[in-house]
Each structure stands twice: as C-alpha cells, then as structure tokens.
Design goal:
The chain is of the alpha+beta class and 380 residues long. It folds into three domains: 203 residues, 3-hydroxy-3-methylglutaryl-coenzyme A Reductase, Chain A, domain 2 (Alpha-Beta Complex); 105 residues, Alpha-Beta Plaits (2-Layer Sandwich), CATH 3.30.70; 49 residues, Helicase, Ruva Protein, domain 3. 47% of the residues lie in helices and 22% in strands. The chain has 13 helices and ten strands. Strand 5 and strand 6 form a beta hairpin. Helix 6 crosses helix 7, helix 7 runs antiparallel to helix 8 and helix 11 packs across helix 12. The longest helix is centred in the C-terminal third of the chain and has 24 residues. The structure holds (R)-mevalonate. The site of (R)-mevalonate (MEV) has 10 residues, from helix 7 and helix 10.
C-alpha cells in the first residue's frame, strides 16, 4: 500500500454496539488506540436508542476540486469565457471520466471564485463539483481536474497552477440528530433535568470558545476517525474538512448543538463534511477494511457518511455527559490501570485482579503495578 515498508503496525479493531439509525441497527467498526472511546460510544447509543435512535442523512457525494488560474489580464472576461463554455467543459470531463459516469456520477457543476490583490497578484479559482458516487473520490476528481486543464487554459487565456480537490467538502455534508429523555440521565447526585442543563452549559462553551471547541470537536472525531479508519478511509481528509467547516463563519466553533425541549429532554444535532467511500482507496487492498465495511454493511457512501455523523454525535454526548457529571477521569481510571498492569508485565489472566487492587488502593501508578506483578511472581 505504501513505500519503504519495514513491517506492519496494528491497532485494536473493536465494534461499538447499540446503534440504531434511521430505524436500522448497526455494529460500528472502530480502529483506535484510546481506551474508553468504544465503551462511551456504545453507552451513548444505548441511551439514544431508548427514544428510537438517531435520524441521519447526507448530501449527494459531490466533491469539490480546484484549479488555480493565474496570469489573467482581465478576470471578468476570463470568468465570462469559462462560464459560457460551462456545458462543454462538463461534457468533456464526463467523456473522460470512465465508469463513474455509468454509475450515475461525474461532473455536476462549475463555479468561479475571484481573488484580487493577493501577494502574487490576481487569480481565479475554478471549482469543479464532481459526484463520486460510492468512492471517496480523490483519484476521480484529481484526474478530472488534470484532464480538463488544457481546455480551461485555452478558454480563459490563463495559466493553471494547482489542480487538486478541496478537503473542505461542504457539498458533501452529513448530519444526525437524536433525543435523550431527561430521566435517563439521572445520577447519584443530580436529577436528570439538572444533568441536561449541565450538558447544555458545556455545549455552549464549545460554541463560544475556540479553546473548548477544539477539545469538544476532538472528542467527536474520536468516534468518527475510528470508524473512518476501520473502513479504510482517509481520516486526515475527514479531519481537515471537519475543522475547516467548524471555522466557516470566521470563528472556530462546535460541530454540534445541544438544547432541551419544553419537557426538559435533551436534543442534539451534528453537521460536518464527510468525504468517505465504500469502494476504491484502501478498501480495495486492506482485508481489515473490507471486513469493517462488510460488518457495517452500508448500502452507499452516503449511508456510511450518515452513520459516521451519528457516531460523532454519540461520542460527543458521552464526553460532555461525563464531563458535566462525574468528570472524565473516573471512567478512564480502570482502563488506565489495565494499561499499566500490562506495561508492568502482568499476564493477561492476572490483569483484572491487579486492576482491582490498584483501584482499591487508590494508586493507579506504574510503580505500584510493577510491585504487585513482582509480588505475584514471587508468590507463584
Ligand atoms: C478525549 O480524547 C476527548 C475529550 O476531551 C472530549 C471532550 O472534552 O469533549 C473527553
């Protein structure tokens, strides 16, 4: 798959459970090294499931590709020339696009953006909208851009420099929403309605403060990236799109919104670009990714994107519920103790006992884990 390989590097492959999305049940394949993510996601999905699960959807899988056009004497004239050839340009792209057109995809539209007075002068940026069907589509759109460049240069009289997709794939959004009844959120210390209020308070901080929004969105991407990675997709592309979208109004903000209805129940919604596919890319070569796609069994790339949005919403809920109630560390401690026990050289069958001793002693430290392991070895 890549160059200069010296071996393989494996990560845990897990399944998040309890997901019900648009009245269909899913097992969510997740590949991630971070403890608690899968458990938190499954727990959240269980609560949403009580009210019927998530509603989710996504746009047609339309990617955006950019051609940077320079050395133009008259931007207005070049714009006019390109737009007057719009239909021919789209037809030429589709004639060279191969099987993707037979499957219902291909060039959809062409837009022009103008940048004046930059450090290197004026330029036009041509945006090609290209439906990539069930593929993430990076190769398809980059080939289309490179193929059409000579015609664009001829029509506009300009010189093309960059020709590459944009990861701010805001024509390819996915969104999900769901509701949790307040009474489900009751804790030892607080009634459900108070927990709902605390969750909304936490969510509002992420709306107004980029320092919090970065962490809040990181939690969302814990879930989405893990699923995107499991299914052999490019998680850096999805990350880049998510964070650029979170800044679309000039200030970086939360990708989710949380509010309550008149009965005090909690509602959440997420929306973000989700450029991911179920054919091509790593899914072609990687058996783990193929297995993940089979387990998830999405019928289209759009369905995969919708499911990923629901996973992001679930993950975000789990994080802010924990933060607004017990704090995040309580749940993490057992997993952390497990890791320390393993790092201290404990045999797999001894791990639960060692973890319990560390928790009972209130000492989740590597030195203590080593001490217990040594003690056990001497005792056996
Ligand atoms: C940790 O990986 C993710 C969280 O920090 C997310 C959040 O703060 O919302 C718990």
């Amino acid at each position: 798959m890549i160059e200069n390989v010296i071996g393989r590097y494996s990560l845990p492959f897990a399944l998040a459970t309890n997901f019900r999305i648009n009245e269909r049940d899913y097992l969510i394949p997740m590949v991630i090294e971070e403890p608690s993510v899968v458990a938190a996601c499954s727990y959240a999905a269980k609560l949403f499931r009580k009210t019927g699960g998530f509603s989710a959807s996504s746009d047609e899988p339309v990617m955006i590709g950019q051609i940077q056009l320079l050395d133009l004497r008259d931007l207005a004239k070049a714009t006019e020339a390109i737009l007057s050839h719009r239909a021919d340009i789209l037809a030429e792209i589709n004639a060279g696009a191969g099987s993707i057109v037979e499957r219902g995809g291909g060039a959809r539209d062409l837009k022009i953006r103008k940048f004046e007075g930059s450090r290197i002068g004026n330029m036009l940026v041509i945006h090609l909208h290209f439906d990539t069907r069930d593929a993430m589509g990076a190769n398809a759109i980059n080939s289309a851009l490179e193929g059409i460049t000579p015609s664009i240069e001829r029509i506009s009289g300009g010189r093309a420099n960059l020709r590459i997709l944009s990861n701010l794939s805001d024509r390819r959004l996915a969104w999900a929403s769901g509701m949790i009844e307040a009474e489900t959120l009751v804790t030892e210390g607080a009634p459900g309605v108070k927990v709902v209020d605390a969750i909304i308070e936490a969510a509002v901080l992420a709306e107004i403060d980029p320092y919090r929004a970065a962490t809040h969105n990181k939690g969302i991407m814990n879930g989405i990236d893990a699923m995107i990675m499991a299914t052999g997709n490019d998680w850096r592309a999805v990350e880049a799109g998510a964070h650029a979208y979170a800044s679309r109004d000039g200030q970086y903000t939360s990708l989710t919104r949380w509010w309550k209805d008149e009965d005090g129940n909690l509602h959440g919604r997420i929306e973000l670009p989700l450029a991911a596919g179920i054919v091509g890319g790593a899914t072609r070569a990687h058996r783990g990714a193929q297995a993940a796609v089979r387990i998830l069994s999405p019928r289209s790339a759009r369905e995969l994107a919708s499911v990923a949005a629901a996973v992001g919403l679930a993950q975000n809920f789990a994080a802010i519920r924990a933060l607004a109630t017990d704090g995040i560390q309580r749940g993490h401690m057992r997993m952390h103790a497990r890791q320390l026990a393993l790092a201290a050289g404990a045999a797999a069958e001894d791990v639960p006992g060692i973890v319990q001793r560390m928790i009972d002693a209130g000492s989740i430290r590597l030195a203590y884990a080593k001490e217990i392991v040594k003690e056990r070895k001497q005792g056996s």
